[in-house]
Structure formats: structure tokens, C-alpha cells
Specification:
CATH topology: Peptide Deformylase
Number of strands: 7
Distance between the termini: 34 Å
CATH architecture: Alpha-Beta Complex
Structural class: alpha+beta
Radius of gyration: 14 Å
CATH class: Alpha Beta
Number of domains: 1
Strand order of the largest sheet: 1-2-3-6-7
Number of helices: 2
Length: 147
């Protein structure tokens, strides 16, 4: 099934996502569906709700050619800390097509998350990965306020 990217006005984008506790086959199918949506729309980062799933999950691929081997899956992600150094970024969002927004983002964030099997991890995300994570994680909590 080909997935579309949901707009900010969609109900699934206007509610906080639910925490994932079942890491079985259904979750693996949802991960594949979100990834297929990313590839189809050539997006480097997508929250699960942007693909229509109200799950606390973000997929990121910072590779220019979006090689599947570089796909990163962040389940139930939480920002533990962020650098005080911030830069102003011009961001686009497939859930708000045609709009560019200026946002101040930390250039480094520490994220705690679970992988596709449920194991916990902590990662220091820098540069593009940090920006992608901050932006898509805002969708998970329905933080839709303009910059």
C-alpha cells in the first residue's frame, strides 16, 4: 500500500503519539511502511504520524542517496539534553508543503530511544541528524506552533 504524507491539519497530526510497547511483527510492518513513504517522497526524516500512524517513532536517513543501510529508527525518543549553541535553520516540512520556516535549533542533542527490537540506546546527535530529530520529534507531541 502506497502511503501519503499527512498534512498538519490532519487529525493524526493534531494529537500526541502513543508510546510503543509492543515490538512485534506489526511494528516491523509500520516501520517498513514509514520507510517506504520516506523513499517515495524523498524525505530524509519522517515521524510515524506523518505517514498516518499515531506511534512515537521517527525514521531518519542522512545519506544523500538515502541508502537503506543508513536508515535509523528512533522509537519512543526523548531529548535528554541539548547544547546551548544554536543556529538558525530554514526548514521545510512535507506536512506543510510550500512553506519554509526559520527555526533556532541546538546543533547537538542527546537522545534516548529504543530500537526496532525494544533495546534502549542513547545517542549524541549532531548537525543534520540533530536538526532532523528535533523537527520530527515536535510532530510526535503535536507541537505544531509556527516558528
Amino acid at each position: 500500500m502506497s502511503r501519503t504524507i499527512f498534512l498538519l491539519s490532519s487529525p493524526v497530526m493534531r494529537q500526541p503519539c502513543r508510546e510503543i510497547s509492543d515490538f512485534g511483527p506489526e511494528l516491523q510492518q509500520r516501520i517498513r511502511a514509514v520507510h517506504a513513504c520516506m523513499v517515495r517522497h524523498r524525505e530524509h526524516a519522517l515521524s510515524a504520524n506523518q505517514a498516518g500512524f499515531a506511534d512515537s517513532m521517527v525514521l531518519v536517513n542522512t545519506s544523500p542517496d538515502m541508502d537503506e543501510s543508513t536508515l535509523q529508527v528512533f522509537i519512543n525518543p526523548r531529548i535528554i539534553s541539548s547544547s546551548s549553541t544554536q543556529h538558525l535553520f530554514t526548514e521545510s516540512c512535507p506536512s506543510e508543503p510550500g512553506k519554509l520556516r526559520q527555526r533556532r535549533r541546538a546543533i547537538e542533542v542527546v537522545i534516548h530511544y529504543q530500537d526496532a527490537r525494544g533495546a534502549g540506546h542513547t545517542v549524541i546527535a549532531r548537525n543534520d541528524l540533530a536538526v532532523y530529530l528535533q523537527h520530527t520529534m515536535e510532530h510526535l507531541v503535536s507541537d505544531l506552533a509556527p516558528a
